[in-house]
Amino acid sequence: MDQDATTGHTVEVIFSAEDIAxxxxxxxxxxxxxGLERPLVVPILTGSFVFAADxxxxxxxxxxxxxxxxLALSSYRDGTRSIGRVDILRDLRLDVTGRDVxxxxxILDTGRTLAFAKDLIAARGARRIVACVLLEKKVRRAVAxxxxxxxxxxxxxxxxxxxxxxxxxxxxxPFVGRIAPNA
Length: 183
Ligand code: IMP
Ligand code: MG
Known about the structure:
Elements: E1 2-3, E2 10-15, H1 17-32, E3 40-45, H2 49-61, E4 67-68, E5 71-78, E6 81-90, E7 100-108, H3 112-123, E8 128-137, E9 149-154, E10 159-160, E11 176-180
Parallel strand pairs: 3-4, 3-5, 3-7, 7-8, 8-9
Antiparallel strand pairs: 1-2, 2-11, 5-6, 10-11
The site of inosinic acid has 17 residues, from strand 7, helix 3 and strand 10.
């Protein structure tokens, strides 16, 4: 539990910092065994920045030397619900033609964000795309897309922390949690 001083909201831990750190090392070993050539890691900003930073250092421990470039996408949300449009807020600087790309995102929910990113990078001629997400929600898929690697299956609740926000808040929490109703 983490008490928020300004709102009085409590965040219940779902995945702890220690658990996430362990899981990232497992994922990194799996990724290093996947045979990616000259791997380019592409975190989908903003929500994945904490996960991507930890995963990247896990990849280093697993012996990889990836490049990194960022794609900032905005999937418009009305509060906590996706309303369907995805825009590019910041495009890649590197050319992905012929590259092996590891896409990294925080949550696979409706699938619109990941599908958009995969289609974009495939259309630009990437040789191989491996999608890795921290959390997968099993419900609400609006687009048929799957991640190749999933750290955790996520309960069907709105989660925050470890980079993920609710209206700009809670990204700094070192764990993934849910907002508990006010007592
Ligand atoms: P999708 O396009 O609906 O799959 O949603 C993906 C994006 O929506 C994620 O990258 C998150 O940024 C955001 N998102 C979806 N569910 C949650 C949640 O429970 N908490 C915080 N952000 C979420
Ligand atoms: Mg996101």
